[in-house]
Design brief:
Elements (H helix, E strand, L loop, with lengths): L4 H10 L8 E2 L15 E8 L5 H14 L8 E5 L17 H17 L3 E4 L3 H4 L2 H16 L12 E7 L2 E6 L1 H5 L17 H14 L4 E6 L25 H12 L9 H14 L5 E5 L5 E6 L2 E6 L14 E5 L3 E8 L4 E7 L4 E9 L16 E4 L11 H7 L4 H4 L3 E4 L11 E5 L7 E5 L5 E6 L4 H9 L13 H9 L11 H8 L7 E5 L15 E7 L16 E4 H10 L3 E3 L1 H14 L9 E8 L2 E8 L13 H9 L16 H4 L4 H7 L5 H14 L2 H7 L10 H15 L1 H14 E5 L5 E7 L5 E9 L2 E11 L6 E5 L6 E5 L7 E5 L5 E5 L5 E5 L5 E3 L5 E4 L3 H4 L10 E12 L3 E12 L9 E10 L4 E14 L2 E10 L4 E3 L19 E16 L4 E14 L6 H4 L11 E15 L7 E14 L4 E14 L6 E12 L10 E3 L13 E3 L1 E17 L4 E16 L9 E12 L3 E10 L2 E7 L5
Parallel strand pairs: 2-3, 3-4, 6-7, 7-8, 8-10, 23-25, 26-30, 27-31, 30-32, 31-33, 32-34, 33-35, 34-36
Antiparallel strand pairs: 1-11, 2-12, 5-6, 9-10, 9-11, 12-13, 13-14, 15-16, 17-18, 18-19, 19-21, 20-21, 22-24, 24-25, 27-28, 28-29, 37-38, 38-39, 39-40, 40-41, 41-43, 42-43, 43-44, 44-45, 45-46, 46-47, 47-48, 48-51, 49-50, 51-52, 52-53, 53-54, 54-55
Helix pairs in contact: 2-3, 3-5, 14-21, 16-20, 20-23
């Protein structure tokens, strides 16, 4: 049977091949689309991958003819990337420049003739000449067609274009996300978005804002494809370079994702998975792409993908589930958005001169039929949660606490609002995009914007936003126990606390919106939004945005901007400054209120102009966590202590339990925007709050809560608030010390002069000036840092030509890190003690002295300012790990991970992991440690692995060779050898972007075997006497690892390659070399991915058998041959192959999380080679099991594998390969 396995694999791979024919899904060839008499709102002509001169003309000419009657105001031509093959636009002096211009100019010529607008989108081939090449292409296109003809601009990732009241175009540069940023030193220099996290925030926000509108996302790389980039290959590709090798080439490409042009690649998959998940936030999203050189229409899992990539090249396709149509003809697509809201797509073959396929994507907009609304009363009595959400057992209350649960079920009487007259008459604009709240944005006739937010939050929105950013699961958690539990956890917030904040804020001069508690019945003006809103309690307040210039609580500011926009403005001009006093007061006020949810998006900024100067004043918003009691109950009480990331959720008490953890979210923002504030400033602001937030103010402000909830707890909140105010002088100064431990000082994107003076008392003085006319001029930052509070100062020069002068003879107690940034920087370091400089390796910098430590690198994260980089160190106690196998019995043990975040991050500064395991069958103990230290040598991290196993830890030994005996009648302890072991392995580890790493290191190992009387090792003649003495080994090893999985729990496409080689010397006698390669694949056998073939090849090769048995090659149990015991066969070398056929049988919507389940069968074969046994025996094992996966995050696997020795039952987490 063994010899047929390769034949089986090859037959599976050949079973479905892509072709160049036009293909239709069932019932799609005779397509019909509804005719619309209302007319076209906008037409999009889509051409992709037209950058080959020899073949581009047929499609360009066809579109030219087809579009001559297009409406100039309601039509757009989009070139979807790969506009110039093969390497984009070269420099002007390049010999290929003219040829590349001709390729692009042919497309530009069509753009000039096209009646409407033209937009070029860059693709991966356009990036192959680097970021500069993309910008050269952009310049030529815009020179010919205008500034609005190339998006996104300047190598940036994102652009939103409003095409009409009900139509939005979002353009994304997919290669921006996938490319290695370290290879482009000016990456994001011209962009507002400078991190991937910021990119995703923008994508999510804009899709949510466009909900209900037809939303086109134009992106070169498709999120779904049935072409070559999706792993569908033509038969002839299996024959190149020769048969079998061609198939193996395709297997590696499809499962390994080794090319970042394929959607199996880890970065490409990350991009597409998250885009598909976020697209579900809008109900009319369409992806339009090129990349694969064909025409495709795919609709799957509520996602629509149009591919028009055969503008000049051809690739084969194969229809898989969701694929409606595909063709490899040269051609294009036209997308028509109709005036009635319906959307149609048409595909045309330029070769055949005809339409190949058309489909309706979205039907016409559903016409809202209003019901008969009840008359609106002046007052209504209502509560937030129904009774079934509130009736909890004593045990539940013990676990989760009382919280503020009863107030969610307390009926309150409030004004009932007729929106047509409220605030001048409000009309809904769009649904909001919060992670918890059900929000509706509204506007009055004067253009002033308001927000109405339901007091009942959405648990499914929270689950989606926090736990599942790469897959859409919100509907799967609807009506589950998990949803109910999270809704109960939400009762840790007081639902009526936000209404008290405005009066409290007025007393101390902190800006704020003005929330009002109302009941909003369903009513005519809500229109289609009546389906989701109305007939419950709401908060209505001003939207913190432009247009409220007459509002004193917004500082009478006509303009209000975001936090990201503040950072953008203050780096562009030194005249633009944050009002740090006002921000400090607002932040101290947060601590008094117990409001821990203060991340960057919880702030808006009022813009006050004074000539050319702008000042930004903080406006806190979203006060949901005021007086919160999230740590109530045994479970949250424990978790908020045990997990630092949850430590911000604390019981509202006289003082925060841990002020550092309480401020986890705002800490990076505080460091960035309170850089000028001294201890005296903090003390003055604390005193101001204590003097002005009087008892009378507190008592009056809290009367804003409904009278129905003003009980004993209400009085306790008042008392606690007063104590918290009084204690601010303690915990406020404690937090001052936290914020000032590491300080950042930023220049601007202009020429700046940084002056750093080491003072005699150990302090460090920092002054930052503008350079004008080549001379040091205007001072815009000055602070003296005290080593009592500050350990490090990070100076960011940002863009343009900066000068850094460090001098002074004082004792340098504070480390200064200088990050020069873009352009030519000058370093004048007279006192280099504790000075570290970072600048680009590929750019010119001048170092006038050799003092200080210099790091030249093109590493993006080192050179580019990101205020999020500053974060707390983390430690996490993991729950005890559990497992079972017959060799060791049950395994149980806790683990601890401690992560340090400082300047050098890759992706952390240090990580320390320790785990303790106890094995019930042997009473053995194993302690492991792994430490990793960032960027010790270039981009390589230092890794330190340690292990200790107690004397009762055991390894199995049955003898050498394939004829070793196993007697099931004797106690298994007979085969156990007690081993005490210690080893330590320092190494350098270099990670690469595509999921691989290289490792090179040394090892030391100490072993001691116990020659236990009555056990096999005591009588074996295959062991030497020296094996039982203390053994010490030194070694050197190298390792390469590559891993790619499309799903961490149930992979349907995966490849794992691991190769380790080394040399080990016994300090007493002998040495050996070894090579341990392994290669594993998972490959779906049906397009749905529910039936998967997984196989793992594993080998161990030693240069000699004159080694201790625990260093020999061994197989069995966890290492191949799953039906045998661990280390069942031992020899000089070994080989095994394990193969599973796994079937996902179905999905379950359980009470807690969505589950999938399945079965699998497996077969293993293998052997060892030993000088003690010259037989040619191969052993096999076979069996299977059941598995369950929870939301593709966690897995459980129960299996039994049989063999000639009997069998082996194992419970574990997920699959080993």
């Amino acid at each position: 049977m063994i010899r047929y396995i390769p034949i089986l694999i090859l037959s599976i791979l050949f079973s479905g091949c892509a072709t160049y024919t036009t293909q239709y899904a069932e019932n799609e060839e005779n397509y019909k689309i509804p005719s619309s008499s209302i007319g076209v709102e906008h037409s999009f002509y889509l051409i992709g991958d037209a950058g080959v001169k020899e073949t581009q003309g047929i499609v360009l000419n066809d579109v030219l003819e087809a579009s001559k009657d297009a409406d100039e105001h309601h039509s757009t031509l989009i070139f979807l990337g790969d506009n110039i093959y093969w390497h984009g636009m070269p420099p002007k002096d390049h010999p290929d420049r003219k040829a590349k211009e001709e390729i692009l100019d042919a497309q530009i010529a069509l753009g000039k003739s096209f009646p409407g607008n033209t937009i070029f989108v860059p693709g991966n081939h356009d990036w192959y000449s680097g970021l500069k090449g993309v910008q050269r292409q952009q310049e030529r296109v815009q020179d010919a067609l205008g500034e609005k003809s190339f998006y996104p601009e300047d190598g940036c990732p994102f652009k939103r274009i409003n095409m009409g009241d009900e139509l939005v175009l979002i353009v994304i540069d997919s290669q921006w996300y996938i490319t290695n940023w370290d290879k482009h030193p000016t990456m994001n220099d011209e962009c507002d978005i400078k991190t991937k996290e910021q990119f995703w925030e923008e994508v999510e926000s804009e899709i949510k804002k466009a909900d209900g509108k037809t939303t086109l996302i134009a992106i070169h790389n498709p999120v779904m494809t049935n072409g070559t980039h999706g792993g569908q290959y033509a038969f002839k590709s299996h024959l190149k370079p020769v048969p079998v090798l061609g198939t193996l080439k395709n297997l590696f490409r499809k499962t390994g994702g080794v090319s970042n042009t394929d959607n199996q690649n880890n970065l490409y998959r990350e991009l597409s998975d998250r885009l598909m998940a976020y697209s579900q936030f809008g109900n009319k999203v369409i992806f339009v792409s090129g990349h694969d050189h064909n025409l495709q229409f795919i609709q799957k899992d509520n996602i629509t993908q149009i591919i028009s990539g055969s503008g000049a090249k051809k690739n084969p396709t194969r229809l898989t589930p969701g694929g409606k149509f595909s063709s490899s003809d040269h051609g294009y697509a036209r997308l028509d958005v109709m005036k009635d809201g319906s959307t149609q797509v048409h595909f045309y073959s330029s070769e055949q001169g005809r339409e190949l396929y058309a489909a309706e994507i979205f039907p016409e907009n559903k016409r809202y039929t209003p019901p008969n609304f009840q008359p609106i009363q002046k007052l209504e009595t209502a509560k937030i949660y129904p009774d079934e959400y509130l009736n909890k057992s004593k045990f539940h209350t013990f676990l989760w606490g009382d919280r503020y649960r009863k107030y969610f079920g307390t009926e309150v009487t409030v004004p009932s609002v007729d929106l047509t007259s409220y605030k001048g008459g409000l009309k809904p604009v769009r649904k909001g995009g919060g992670h918890q709240s059900m929000t509706l944005h509204m506007v009055n006739p004067a253009g002033k914007e308001y927000v109405m937010r339901a007091l009942k939050k959405s648990a499914t929105q929270f689950i989606q936003a926090v736990g599942f950013k790469d897959q859409y699961v919100a509907d799967s958690f609807d009506q589950t126990a998990t949803e109910a539990l999270i809704l109960d956890v939400f009762t840790g917030t007081h639902p009526y606390a936000p209404f008290t904040v405005a009066s409290l804020s007025d007393a101390i001069g902190v800006l704020h919106p003005n929330p009002t508690l109302v009941y909003i019945p369903k009513q005519q003006v809500l229109g289609k939004y009546n389906e989701m809103f109305g007939d419950e309690l709401y908060m209505i307040e001003e939207k913190v945005t432009d247009g409220h210039g007459n509002l004193e609580s917004f500082a009478n500011a006509d303009e209000v901007i975001s936090t990201y926009k503040v950072f953008e403005k203050i780096r562009k001009d030194e005249e633009n400054q944050v009002d740090q006093r006002a921000f400090l007061r607002a932040r101290l006020f947060d601590m008094v209120l117990g409001d821990w949810d203060r991340h960057y998006d919880q702030w808006k900024w009022a813009v006050k102009e004074d000539g050319d100067k702008e000042t930004y004043i903080a406006i806190p918003r979203d006060r949901d966590q005021v007086f919160s009691n999230m740590a109530d109950g045994a479970i949250m009480g424990y978790l908020t202590h045990a997990i630092p990331s949850l430590g911000l959720m604390q019981h509202y008490s006289a003082e925060p339990r841990n002020i550092k953890r309480f401020n986890l979210e705002p800490y990076p923002l505080d460091v960035a925007l309170l850089s000028d504030m001294t201890e005296q400033d903090w003390q003055e602001e604390i005193k101001f709050i204590q003097e002005n937030l009087t008892d009378a103010v507190i008592e009056k402000s809290l009367q804003e809560m409904p009278s129905e909830v003003q009980d004993e707890t209400f009085q306790e909140i008042i008392t606690t608030l007063k104590k918290r105010r009084d204690n601010l002088s303690n915990y406020g100064i404690d937090y001052f010390k936290v914020v000032n431990k590491t300080a950042t000082v930023n220049g601007t994107d202009k020429d700046d002069f940084f002056e750093v003076v080491r003072l005699a008392n150990g302090s460090t003085e920092v002054k930052v000036y503008r350079i004008k006319g080549g001379e040091k001029k205007d001072l815009f930052h000055h602070k003296v840092f005290d080593p009592k509070f500050t350990q490090e100062i990070w100076l960011y020069g940002l863009d343009d030509d900066d000068v850094f002068h460090v001098y002074g003879s004082g004792n340098a107690k504070i480390k200064v890190r200088i990050i020069g940034g873009q352009n030519h920087d000058i370093y004048r370091i007279d006192n280099g003690k504790k000075v570290v400089m970072y600048d680009y390796k590929s750019k010119k910098s001048t170092f006038e002295t050799s003092k200080g430590t210099k790091h030249l690198t093109d590493n993006y994260k080192v050179n580019v300012y990101d205020y999020h980089k500053l974060k707390y160190n983390d430690w996490v106690w993991a729950f005890p790990a559990l497992g079972y196998n017959p060799d060791n019995g049950f395994m149980i043990g806790p683990s601890l991970t401690y992560t340090i975040h400082n300047f050098e991050q890759n992706p952390f500064t240090q990580k320390h992991q320790a785990q303790l395991k106890f094995f019930t069958a042997t009473e053995g103990v194993e302690l492991t440690y792994m430490g990793e230290f960032a960027r010790v040598l270039g981009d390589a991290n230092l890794v330190l692995d340690g292990l200790y196993r107690s004397p009762y830890y055991s390894k199995n030994f049955f003898g050498y060779g394939m004829n070793s005996n196993y007697n099931d009648d004797v106690d298994f302890d007979y085969y156990r050898t007690l081993v005490e072991e210690f080893h330590i392995k320092p190494s350098l580890k270099l990670r690469k972007q595509n999921g691989q790493f290289y490792q090179l290191g040394l090892s030391y190992q100490a072993m001691e075997l116990e020659k236990t009387e009555g056990r096999y090792v005591y009588q074996s003649n295959q062991l030497r006497a020296s094996d039982f003495s203390n053994q010490n080994f030194l070694g050197v090893f190298g390792r390469f690892n590559y891993e790619n999985r499309d799903n961490p729990v149930f992979p349907s496409l995966a490849m794992v390659l691991n190769v380790e080689a080394g040399y080990t010397a016994n300090l007493d006698h002998g040495s050996f070399t070894y090579l341990n390669p392994s290669l594993g694949f998972s490959h779906k056998l049906v397009p749905s991915g529910k039936l998967v073939l997984s196989t793992l090849f594993d080998a161990q090769i030693n240069s000699t058998e004159e080694v201790a048995f625990y260093q020999a090659a061994s197989i069995g149990g966890n290492n191949g041959l799953r039906g045998f015991h661990n280390q069942r066969f031992t020899g000089k070398s070994s080989y095994t192959q394990s193969t599973d056929l796994r079937l996902k049988m179905g999905d379950l919507k359980t009470a807690f999380i969505p589950m999938s389940y399945g079965i699998y069968g497996g077969f293993d074969y293998g052997r060892v080679w030993s000088d003690y046994d010259m037989s040619d025996i191969w052993k096999t094992s076979y069996g299977g099991g059941v598995f369950m996966n929870g939301a593709d995050k966690i897995g459980l696997n129960v299996s039994f594998f049989g063999s000639e020795d009997g069998g082996r039952f194992v419970i574990g987490a997920g699959f080993d390969f």
